[in-house]
Amino acid sequence: MIEYNIRYGSSNPSKLYTVNDLECLFFENLFSKFKKCNLNNKTDMIRMSDGTLTVNYSGCPIGKIKLQGKNYWMQILTSLYDHEIIEGNIQVFIPKIDDWIKYINNYLKG
């Protein structure tokens, strides 16, 4: 079982979330792909009030994923100033992890 470093965006959150099965599946795939690409697992996450997770790599944002509630979506940073939002399900989001890795390699690795 992977232990997740998740903190809340507020010091007094109105709702506490538990890591659900979809989030576990997504992050297991993320960390597996990181390992295959020789990326360190230097991630931390911030839980927003709607359940969305902001995901950071080495302290820098790489995207967001919302797998809580009814509407699921993923934010992919496409450059330092642009992003795209993908709506769908876990089967849509897992292949898009490659876009997060591309962003890390293009903008965060020096």
Structure description:
The chain has 110 residues and is an alpha+beta fold. It has one domain (6-108). It is built from 2 helices and 6 strands, in the order E-H-E-E-E-E-E-H. The protein has helices at 21-36, 90-108, and strands at residues 6-8, 43-47, 53-57, 60-66, 73-77, 83-87. It has a 6-stranded mixed sheet with strand order 1-2-3-4-5-6, with helices on one face. The radius of gyration is 13 Å and the shape is globular. The mean pLDDT is 92.
Main attributes of the structure:
globular, 110 residues, single chain, 6-stranded mixed beta sheet, alpha+beta, 2 helices
Biggest β-sheet: strands ordered side by side in the sheet: 1-2-3-4-5-6
How many individual helices? 2
Supply the number of structural domains. 1
Please tell me the overall pLDDT: 92
**Shape category:** globular
The radius of gyration is 13 Å
Low-pLDDT segments: none
What is the straight-line distance between the termini?
A: 31 Å
Q: What multimeric state do the chains show?
A: single chain
Q: Give the % helix.
A: 25-40%
Helix and strand content put the structural class at alpha+beta
Sketch the topology as an H/E string, one letter per element.
Answer: EHEEEEEH
Number of strands: 6
Q: What's the main sheet like?
A: 6 strands, mixed
| Strand residue content | 25-35%
